[in-house]
TrEMBL record, chain A:
Organism: Cohnella nanjingensis
Domain of life of the native organism: Bacteria
Membrane-spanning segments: 12-34, 82-102, 109-131, 155-173, 194-216, 260-281
GO cellular component: plasma membrane
GO BP field: transmembrane transport
Pfam families in UniProt: BPD_transp_1
Keywords, ordered alphabetically: Cell membrane, Membrane, Transmembrane, Transmembrane helix, Transport
Name of the protein described by the UniProt record: Carbohydrate ABC transporter permease
Automatic annotation (TrEMBL), chain B:
PANTHER family associated with the record: ARABINOSE-BINDING PROTEIN-RELATED, DIACETYLCHITOBIOSE BINDING PROTEIN DASA
InterPro entries: Bact_solute-bd_prot1, SBP
Organism, scientific name: Cohnella nanjingensis
Keywords per UniProt: Signal
Name of the protein: Extracellular solute-binding protein
Length: 296, 477
């Protein structure tokens, strides 16, 4: 079969692009086989090969898996991710339904206002959020607003804080749902379907691709989020894997002797579950975005 | 209609559930919160001011410390429990904790013992270091939710100037002035009052690579004593290296790490960041010679390493036997051993007519915030960390210099002559980074940009710093 030059050119560009994308991962795998001493003493090339390769860093991960605290971090990461995925998908779906199907005064203005909040960088909201949690009424020793620590350093930071309303998700669901003919709703109502049944039995199955997309991106963001545990909690028992790694990095660098291979290996360790999720569910990305009308 | 009702009921239920579930008035672990006022003028502060007498049992036993990794065992929780866990871990497998971890354990044990003897229980919260720590501390101070001790580096003088830290009570102030080397507390002195002290701070001293000195035909036992000697030696090393190794690096990147290291040279020449009224003096005549010196030195450094935004670009060639001369804090001694570098050490070279000066680096200043619930306990912790037992432990670990005159001038002087050089450098003209009266971050950004332009371009140095001065004067006006 003859390959058209334009296709060959396209494949070369994709191959080079793919290599650029995957290069950091290759570097991480190679660097994780170094000892701290060899890493510090070697002038690293683009593909560093250890003279005395070691799997000690990987053994630390395996060994750490038996550590009680690491098990807590893992459980916290997993539970928080699952909770966020369920809650964010639910709020995105219901929010999307409200803005796509219901009619009320100020709907467009309200939607734009909510969408605008998604444009504020998280770091700008850090101090207001901290104060909000610290002043949470009747929590953590507070009277109406003061006196205690509010919901800081408690599980409520994860339950209330993260997925209150996934407005970007709601936007995607709204876009996707607007493509479904309104006649479908009317037909269902004529056949006697209640609003609840209409939402969850008729419209929900049609939104599964975009909800899968929302679930995957939420899972990725929550799993990798180190900021929420770091800033709003202090207890060991509330930490997640990325936050725990941040602490390890802080200790490693403060003494002036960074153990980069160990930090890189730990980074690999927490990346792996997300790689698997992406690998198995990547088709939902395309499908979901296509349904939302965002694909070119 | 049905949907509307459902949604209303759901939201109401969620709110009731949330408020009742976390509204128990207890902390997450079920223990009752400490009953203390957040009022800065609370009675605990007042009693702390009165006396350092430790004979009576404390009213509030728990002291919450915002841990610094160099001083304490890692992790968050009761320090006694953390010590016990770590000791158990070491007992099961001696290699499970590295030397630095064992040294931190020894220091934490000594501090915990002093506090336990006084009737206090230490509780530790690990808030990390560097930028994330600054953000978390800022948020905590704004929310008036702080531990009893916070540790910080470049941000701490700023907190003191903003009135967010409690001045040391008279008994502690007097103890520190009489017994602790100036460099450990002088950067935290504001309007005649001390607001913090570092228990094992660093300053920069000169290091040189003896192996590269030999390869360049230089005497490996003698480092440069003046700026002109430094430039001369750097040139020789660079020429011998032929691109394989380089003359010198003074890290001068546009960040705190750069300001702390490169800021020393203007001070030596009689200049500095600010005048006695804390006003920026970036374009001071005396600074220009120092900036010219750094530009000259940069030609003998690995390309782009001195002005790089990331410290890694500086550490990498130093650790890999590629740099002849550099200036660094006390941790460099152990790094030389780890990286098998044969290092020489000496005081920082001086300019003609200049005087020794330094800036603290890696200094974790411990302070009591005005919103601390147990201020008395906080000050007792500072006293404990400056006690003979803890300072002797810091001296014995041989990683950093102690700060109390009694311990440093004792056996330590002869047992750790390399580290004693750092103690010596902590005496005299030692500063911290200033906090500008307005737009502090932006002013530092201007300084960093000007430094990068100084090193990376051939523009007129005076003009670069005149421009910077004009900008910052408008900012702080």
């Amino acid at each position: 079969m003859k390959v058209k030059p334009i296709n060959l050119f396209g494949h070369i560009i994709l191959l080079v692009g793919g290599l650029v994308m995957i290069y950091p991962l290759i570097f991480m795998v190679l660097a994780s086989t170094f000892t701290k001493q060899e890493y510090a003493a070697t002038v690293l090339g683009p593909f560093p090969i250890a003279i005395k390769p070691t799997f000690a860093n990987f053994r630390i991960i395996v060994g750490a898996a038996k550590d009680h605290l690491v098990q807590i971090y893992f459980f916290n990461s997993l539970f928080r991710t699952l909770y966020s995925v369920v809650f964010a998908s639910l709020t995105a779906f219901l929010g999307g339904f409200v803005f796509a199907r219901l009619r009320f005064r100020g709907k467009d203005g309200l939607f734009l206002f909510m969408l605008a909040t998604a444009m504020i960088p998280g770091v700008v909201a850090l101090i207001p959020t901290y104060i909000e949690y610290a002043r949470w009424p009747y929590a953590g020793g507070n009277n109406i607003f003061m006196g205690g620590k509010g919901i800081l350093d408690s599980w409520w930071v994860y339950m209330i804080g993260g997925p209150a309303l996934n407005i970007m998700g709601a936007f995607l669901v709204k876009q996707s749902m607007e493509k479904v003919p309104i006649e479908l709703d009317e037909a269902a109502k004529i056949d006697g379907a209640s609003t609840f049944r209409l939402i969850f039995q008729i419209l929900l199955p049609l939104q599964l691709p975009i909800l899968a997309f929302i679930a995957i991106t939420t899972a990725q963001a929550t799993w990798n989020d180190w900021g929420t545990p770091f800033f709003f909690t202090s207890s060991d028992k509330l930490q997640t894997l990325p936050a725990a790694i941040t602490r390890i990095s802080s200790i490693a660098t403060s003494a002036g002797v960074p153990d980069y291979p160990l930090m890189i290996t730990l980074g690999l360790g927490i990346t792996f579950p997300m790689l698997l999720i992406f690998f198995f569910f990547q088709r939902f990305f395309v499908q979901g975005l296509a349904n939302a009308g965002l694909k070119g | 209609m049905v949907l509307k009702r459902c949604v209303t009921v759901l939201i109401a239920a969620l709110l009731v559930f949330a408020v009742t579930a976390c509204g128990s008035g207890k902390s997450n672990d079920g223990k009752a919160e400490q009953s203390a006022s957040t009022d800065p003028s609370s009675s605990s502060a007042a009693s702390a001011t009165e006396s350092g007498d430790s004979s009576s049992a404390p009213a509030n036993k728990t002291v919450v410390i915002n841990a610094n990794a160099a001083d304490n065992v890692a992790g968050s929780g009761e320090v006694a429990d953390l010590i016990q866990d770590l000791e158990k871990k070491i007992k099961e497998d001696a290699n499970s904790v590295d030397e630095a971890g064992k040294q931190r354990l020894a220091i934490a044990k000594a501090a915990n013992k002093v506090m336990a003897d006084l009737g206090y229980e230490l509780k530790q919260e690990d808030w990390g270091w560097s930028e994330p720590l600054v953000q978390k501390q800022t948020a905590a101070l704004v929310a008036k939710q702080t531990p009893d001790i916070i540790t910080g580096e470049t941000q701490s003088p700023g907190f003191a100037a903003q009135g967010l830290l409690e001045p040391f009570p008279d008994w502690l102030d007097q103890f520190v002035r009489e017994n602790v080397v100036e460099g450990a507390w002088k950067p935290m002195e504001y309007q005649g009052k001390i607001y913090g002290v570092a228990f094992q701070p660093g300053v920069s001293v000169l290091f040189w690579n003896k192996d590269l000195f030999r390869k360049s035909g230089l005497d490996p036992d003698k480092g440069p004593a003046t700026w002109s000697e430094w430039l001369e030696m750097s040139k020789k090393i660079n020429e011998a290296g032929k691109g394989k190794f380089y003359g010198s690096i003074v890290y001068s990147g546009p960040n705190n790490g750069g300001y702390l290291r490169a800021g020393i040279y203007p001070l030596m020449n009689g200049g500095g960041f600010v005048n006695e009224n804390n006003e920026p003096i970036f374009n001071d005549e005396k600074n220009m010679a120092a900036f010219q010196f750094l530009r000259d030195l940069n030609q003998y450094a690995p390309k782009g390493a001195m002005a790089n935004g990331s410290e890694a670009a500086y550490w990498d060639p130093v650790n890999k036997n590629q740099v002849g001369i550099w200036a660094e804090g006390p941790w460099m001694i152990s790094m030389c051993a780890t990286n098998k570098l044969e290092c020489g050490m000496g005081p920082l070279p001086l300019p003609d007519g200049g005087k020794a000066a330094n800036i603290t680096i890696g200094a974790a200043f411990a302070s009591v915030p005005v919103y601390a619930k147990n201020k008395e306990g906080g000050f007792k912790f500072i006293e404990a960390m400056l006690s003979d037992g803890v300072q002797q432990m810091i001296a014995d670990t041989g990683v950093r210099a102690p700060v109390t005159k009694k311990i440093a001038e004792g056996k330590f002087k002869t047992e750790h002559p390399e580290l004693y050089q750092f103690y010596e450098a902590l005496q005299g003209n030692v500063r911290g980074l200033p906090t500008f009266s307005k737009e502090n971050t932006k002013v530092w950004q201007v300084y960093g940009d000007a430094m990068v332009r100084t090193l990376m371009t051939n523009e007129d140095i005076k003009k670069i710093w005149d421009d910077a001065q004009t900008k910052v004067e408008a900012m702080v006006k």
